[in-house]
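Supplementary Methods S3. Complex input for the adenosine-5'-triphosphate-bound model.
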Amino acid sequence: MTLTVPTRKPPTTAEPVFSVSGLWKVFGPKPERVPADPELSALAPAELRSRTGCTAAVRDVSFDVRKGEVFVVMGLSGSGKSTLVRCLTRLIEPTAGTIAIDGEDVRAMDRARLRELRRHRAAMVFQHFGLLPHRTVLDNVAYGLEIQGVGRSERRERAAEFVAKVGLAGMEKRRPGQLSGGQRQRVGLARALVVDPEVLLFDEPFSALDPLIRRDMQDEVARLHREEGRTMVFITHDLSEALKLGDRIALMRDGRVVQLGTPEEIVGAPADDYVREFVRDVPREQVLTCRTAMRPACAEDAAHGPALRPEATVAEAIEAVARAGAPARVMDQGRCLGVIDHDRLLGVVAGVTPEAPAGTAPAATAVGDAPAPAGTSTAPAMTAGDAPTPAAGTRTAGNAPAPAPAAESAPATRETAPGEHRPAPGGHRPAPGEHRPAPGERRPASEAPAGGTREAV
Ligand SMILES: Nc1ncnc2c1ncn2[C@@H]1O[C@H](COP(=O)(O)OP(=O)(O)OP(=O)(O)O)[C@@H](O)[C@H]1O
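Predicted complex, serialized as C-alpha cells:
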C-alpha cells in the first residue's frame, strides 16, 4: 500500500458541529420495533432479516463531528456509511436516536428548516455530482447561489472565485461534457463550497476517478481543509484515502461503528480482528508518530541528536536518524520528551515493541533544542517529580492496555498533558525505569507486513 499521510495537527477538541447519539436506521416492515426491543436489536443481521424482514443499516451509533475536523466514515460496501451520513441531514429518516447540529435538534426540524440545513449548513458532494449539462462551469457553480436567491452579478463573481479556487480558472465557459471526470468533480466541489456551508458531506466523491486524478482531488480536499479549516465528513471504503484525509476515522461494520479514533489509533491499536485485518498492510511507520514510538531519554541522549516534533511520523524519524547516524530526540517546546533509536524504529516497522536496552533510565529533561556544547554537563536526569504523569483517567503503567474504543463514548482520543508521554495506542506506557512491551501490542514477526509491500513516503 502506498501512503502519503501528511504530518498533521493533533486532533481538535473543539465543540461538536454534529452530535449523534443512539442512532438507528432500520429498513423494512415496522422498523421502529427493532431498536425498541432489546431482543431484536441484539440479533445478528442475517437473523434479524429472517425473523423480521428488516435490515438495520445503522445500529445504535453515537459520535460527534468536531468543528474543523475531517471526520471519515469508512467500511466495506453495505456497512452503512451512506445511510449514516444521509441521516445527518435527514435525506434518509432515522428510525431512532438523536442528531443535533450546533445543538439544534435535526429530527425536530420542519421542512423549511431542513431545506435551510441542506442548502446552507451541511452541503453534500456526491460521487455523481449531477451537473447541469447545458450550463457552463460558471453557471453550474453559481447554481447553488441561484437557489438561495443571490443576485446575478454577485453570484457570478463568487462562482468565479470558487472556480479558480478548485483550479479551473480559464474553464468557466466550458460545459460539463467538455471536461474530464476529475474536472467535473472539481466543479461539483466548487458548487458545494460556494454556498459556504458549515459542513461539507462527501459521499465517496472520488471512487469513480482514476488513481492519479483521485490523488489530485484528495490533495485538493486536504489543501482546502488546511486553508479554510472547514468541517468535513467524508465517506470512503478506501483505507489509504481515510488515513490521508481523516483527522478521525469511524470504522463501520454491519451498521455499527466498531472503532473510532485517529489514524494512528486505528493503525496502532485495532479494536478487533476485523479492524486488524483492515489495517494489516498499512506501512505503520507512515502513520505512527514519534510520540508513540519514542522511549524515555537517558540523561546523556537528552542533549544530542537530531530534534523531531512529537507529531512527526516514524518515517520522518527514520530519515533523520539515518542522516545523523544517531538517535533522534523528540522535542516539545524545548523539552526532551523521549528518544527514538534504531530499536524503536525497527520495532515500529516490524510491528513489535522492542525491549529496553539494559540500564536505560528514563529522563525527561527541559533542555534547549540545540545540542549542549561539548564538555558542558548534560541536562540533568529527570527527577521523580519530572516523571511524565498520566493525565487523569488514563491508564497507569502496569495496567493492561485498555481495549481501543468501540465508539465515541469511549475516549478515542485525548489531549496530552504538557510533557506527558503519550502511550502507544493500545500499546504501553513505560513506568520510569521500566520498559515493557504491552500485552497485545507485540505482533509476531510472521504477521509483520512484508518489506516488499512498503514504499517510501
Ligand atoms: N432503501 C433501502 N432499503 C432496504 N435496504 C437498504 C436500503 N438502503 C440501504 N439498504 C441496506 O442497508 C445496508 C447499508 O447500506 P449503505 O448503502 O448505507 O452501505 P454503504 O456502506 O454506504 O455501502 P456502499 O459502500 O456500497 O455504498 C445495506 O445492507 C443495504 O443493502
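The chain has a mean pLDDT of 76. Residues 299 and 379 are 6 Å apart (CA to CA).
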